[in-house]
Amino acid sequence: MKIGHMQFNLNNLIKFLIGCNLVMFLVVGAMLGVGNKDSNAEASKKHTNSAAIMNIVKSNDVIGKTDTSMFKSAVKLTTAKVDKKSKTAFLTFDDGPSINTDKILAILRKYHVKATFFVNGHTDKNSKKMYKLILKDGNVIGNHTYSHEYKYVYKSIPNFKKDIIKLNDYVEKLTGKEPIKVLRFPGGSNNRVSIRYGGKHIMKNLVKQVKKMGYSYVDWNVDSEDASAVMISKKRIVNNVLSECKWKKTAVILMHDSAPKKTTVAGLAQIISSLKKKGFRFDTIDHMNTKIQFLK
């Protein structure tokens, strides 16, 4: 590039900038030199300032050659940390295991996601295999009562306790590992059907009893509604989950893996991939990490 009779290239430009900085240095130095009656501390401060200015001048060439990719990488890393750890989804599956559990586990493996299975006591050959596979894959088994029979478990506190203990013993015998000390009440802690069998105070009394047994319990704040009928459409399940997760930082998602729930399986991959894109990480339920409860 030519300006008048002088030809500028990159080197000339750098020299020009350095010259400007030198002029600035001289001006600032002159300003700092005013007032020779300053104390020794002030003189030392002037010396430090002058040295800092000289370092700036000397570093012009280095700044011009700095690889800015390091700054871009830092920005990406910071953004990823903030976004992905701010929201957590807990996939929970009730009433299994069944023939659908194996398919669900395959999807979880594919997306490197773990889930919590609130199981009942199933004695068929496939279910016995699934209890083991759930744990082998690093997922979690929670207690959903052995029988899931409302008229039995909600008739009395002793009945409920027996059913919880029966499932614990059954799973531990099959897998060598007891379910976690977190349960999900059949129908949720605010269900109304229990009143028919145990009276209007049965659920409040059971909540107290569960705590005495050393358990906590979890309900949900996102309902796929896959239990609202024997089978609902895949589209409805996916839309329900994604719409209810939209404004939540903690999403405990209710789904089912009993035998009829084929559309739940069909929609699971889309649910997981969509939630990941929205910044959700996935975790399993434990004794302390979530307190989503209808009835306190």
Automatic annotation (TrEMBL):
CDD domains in the cross-refs: CE4_SmPgdA_like
One function term, GO molecular function aspect: hydrolase activity, acting on carbon-nitrogen (but not peptide) bonds
Domain NodB homology: 87-283
PANTHER family listed in its UniProt record: GLYCOSYL TRANSFERASE-RELATED, POLYSACCHARIDE DEACETYLASE YHEN-RELATED
InterPro entries with a match to the protein in the record: Glyco_hydro/deAcase_b/a-brl, NODB_dom, Polysacc_deacetylase_ArnD
Recorded superkingdom: Bacteria
Keywords, in A-Z order: Hydrolase, Membrane, Transmembrane, Transmembrane helix
The protein, known as: Peptidoglycan-N-acetylmuramic acid deacetylase PdaA
EC number from the UniProt entry: 3.5.1.-
Example GO BP: carbohydrate metabolic process
Chain segments annotated as transmembrane: 12-34
